[in-house]
Amino acid sequence: MNQATATHARGLVWGLLWGIVLRLLCPAGAAPGDFLEFDPRYRERQWTSDDTLPHNRIRCLLQSQDGYLWIGTAAGLVRFDGLQPTLFNKASVPEMRSDNCVALAETPDGSVWIGTEDGLLRWKDHRFTVRLTQQIE
């Protein structure tokens, strides 16, 4: 038996063994995917400015330690928990001098740092603080 035939035969044997194992693990009539249960609230969806994003152009993205997805756009910042987005912008956050979010980062203490075109903000303990501002003349 040549090398190619031996390799093909081993692949067939392994495939047959995996098929037997899966068949033994799955009850009659059940497919492996039948055991996966998904929360119907979570599903794939495209978000645009027509829905909840303040702008269609995403400039930066971060998933924080607590599981939130932070989305920085040219028209504000969104914190998303998988179900309900929360918009932060100049109108809702007095500390934000610019809606143009250009950078996001997180430090080990759980602080989320937001870089805008006009400064740097810190989100910690559910509030914003201004850390650095740029004077534009």
Biggest sheet strand order reads 1-2-3-4
- How many helices does DSSP assign? 1
Q: Which CATH architecture of the largest domain would you pick?
A: Beta Barrel
Q: How much beta, percentage-wise?
A: 25-35%
CATH third-tier fold name of the largest domain:
Thrombin, subunit H
Task: Characterize the structure shown.
Strands 1-2-3-4 form a four-stranded antiparallel sheet, with no helix packed on it. Strands 5-6-7-8 form a four-stranded antiparallel sheet, with no helix packed on it. The chain has 137 residues and is an alpha+beta fold. It folds into two domains: 3-35; 58-133, Beta Barrel (Thrombin, subunit H). The radius of gyration is 25 Å and the shape is elongated. 17% of the residues lie in helices and 32% in strands. It has one helix and eight strands; from the N terminus they run H-E-E-E-E-E-E-E-E. The longest helix is centred in the N-terminal third of the chain and has 23 residues, at 3-25. A hairpin with a 5-residue loop joins strand 1 and strand 2.
What does the secondary structure layout of this molecule look like, with pairings?
Blueprint: H1 3-25, E1 58-63, E2 69-73, E3 76-80, E4 85-88, E5 101-106, E6 112-116, E7 119-124, E8 127-133
Antiparallel strand pairs: 1-2, 2-3, 3-4, 5-6, 6-7, 7-8
Short description:
With 137 residues, the protein is α+β, with helices and mostly antiparallel strands.
Overview features:
1 helix, alpha+beta, four-stranded antiparallel β-sheet, 8 strands, about 140 residues, Thrombin, subunit H
